Amino acid sequence: MSSIRMENNQYYDRSVFLPPIDITPPVSSTESQIKFKLPILMYHYVEAYGDPKDVVRRGLTVNPETFEQELKRLVEGGYTMYFAKDMNDMLSGETQPIAKGMVLTFDDGYEDFYTVVFPLLKKYHVKATVYVIYNYIDRKGFLTEREIQELINSGLVEIGCHTFDHAYLKNMQYEAARHQIIESKAKFEERFGIVVETFAYPFGAYDNNAVQLAKEAGYKLAVSVVPGAIHGADSRFYLTRIRPGIFNPADMIQVLEKYNK
Ligand SMILES: [Zn+2]
């Protein structure tokens, strides 16, 4: 199954059209008391999109001015942005998340993360996590190796893994899934001299094998595309996220504050 399709020379991700995935928890946890709210926002493109008829891409796109407005409101509203990996200690109960904590995530590693998002992260002193597809590094429209290195050096960006090829992991043959989840992590670490602690399932598609492999790989946690903002140790490998594209930037804080699932 092709993951990112190219149409009119534009790439897009079809994750929003996936039916709800099976989130039967494959893990039982003794840390089940831990529950806290921390919105993990999920962005894809942050760009001025050209074709209003491309509804798929439009659904995954936030334009740069809107994004800056959102960021500004959040910062002025007292929100603090964590890296996704910072949630590890919260999920194990070692640290308490602050009340106005949040994680900004960007899937796929599009070049606009460097050209549009990164300057704004610096302007507002905000951290973010970007989920990079290893084999898309240096491809047209995606982050280059040099840009990724600069993001890492800034201290404002966590690089997370999004497989080698944007693989659809649900029902994937075991060895192939192993390659996509485990070997990709090692490649990132070797190439960039970092430890990759978090993983995002492409399309939000996963099954028990994928979850087990993510654990085996040594990721501390993994994010899905299922909507939600309440997290616990038992959902460490399928943390829910919120798509900011679904609400008006003016209502953003209000919507996030009311979010209770
Ligand atoms: Zn993706």
Describe the structure.
This protein has 261 residues and is an alpha/beta fold. It has a single domain, classed as Alpha-Beta Barrel (TIM Barrel). The protein is built from 8 helices and 14 strands. The protein has helices at 55-59, 64-76, 87-91, 112-124, 145-154, 174-192, 208-217, 252-258, and strands at residues 4-7, 10-13, 35-37, 40-43, 45-46, 61-62, 80-82, 101-108, 128-132, 157-161, 198-200, 221-227, 230-232, 239-241. Strands 4, 7, 8, 9 and 10 form a 5-stranded parallel β-sheet that branches. It has a 3-stranded parallel β-sheet with strand order 11-12-14, covered by helices on one side. The chain starts with a strand and ends with a helix. The protein binds zinc ion. The site of zinc ion (ZN) has 7 residues, from strand 8. Zinc ion binds at residues 13, 15, 107-108, 162, 166, 202.
